Automatic annotation (TrEMBL):
GO cellular component, one term: cytoplasm
Family: Belongs to the Ntn-hydrolase family.
Protein name: ASGL1 asparaginase
GO terms, biological process: L-asparagine catabolic process via L-aspartate
Top-level taxon of origin: Eukaryota
Example GO molecular function: hydrolase activity
InterPro entries: Ntn_hydrolases_N (IPR029055), Peptidase_T2 (IPR000246)
Name of a matching Pfam family: Asparaginase_2
Length: 165
């Protein structure tokens, strides 16, 4: 076989996308795919490419990841991330993490630097500190749109499902 052409597929999430957000979401998915593809073209690993593509979406307020995440009941950003290596099925995950811009990076560190598969909340926080992952103020991850959706969900007659899109 000759050299394989690198391929990357990026999924921007499920649910209905409203007209006014369509363009930004599409552009964000394309940007994420191109960043991941760029890593592959430079000889980076599939894991590097996946981490880069996800990081791109975590940094993009159009997606429910990182900056732009749906808020929890208290109105905070609380995130989960998981990454898996298809070669050996190793995986790493974090859950309920706060004040970290790119949980995907932390999930990868869990996979590569610990014997664990999943770290959560306080344990994930301590591990992030030990790994030198910078903290960001929680408010930096909250967008106007997530705040509005959260407020709507607090209304007694609200149907939260409707606002998850």
């Amino acid at each position: 076989l000759g050299s394989m052409k690198p391929v990357i597929v990026v999924h921007g999430g499920a649910g209905r996308i409203f007209k006014e957000r369509e363009e930004g979401c599409r552009a964000g998915v394309v940007r994420a795919a191109l960043r991941g593809y760029g890593v592959l073209k430079q000889g980076g690993s599939a894991l590097d490419a996946v981490e880069e593509a996800v990081r791109s979406m975590e940094d993009d307020p159009h997606f429910n990841a990182g900056c732009g995440s749906v808020l929890n009941e208290k109105g905070e950003v609380e995130m989960d991330a998981i990454i898996m290596d298809g070669k050996n099925l190793d995986s790493g995950a974090v859950s309920a993490v706060k004040c970290i811009a790119n949980p995907i990076k932390l999930a990868r560190l869990v996979m590569e630097k610990t014997k664990h598969m999943l770290l959560t909340d306080h344990g994930a926080h301590l591990f992030a500190q030990a790994m030198g992952i910078p903290e960001v103020p929680g408010e930096k991850l909250i967008t106007e749109r997530s705040r509005e959706r959260w407020k709507k969900n607090l209304e007694p007659d609200s149907n939260p499902e409707e606002f998850q899109k």
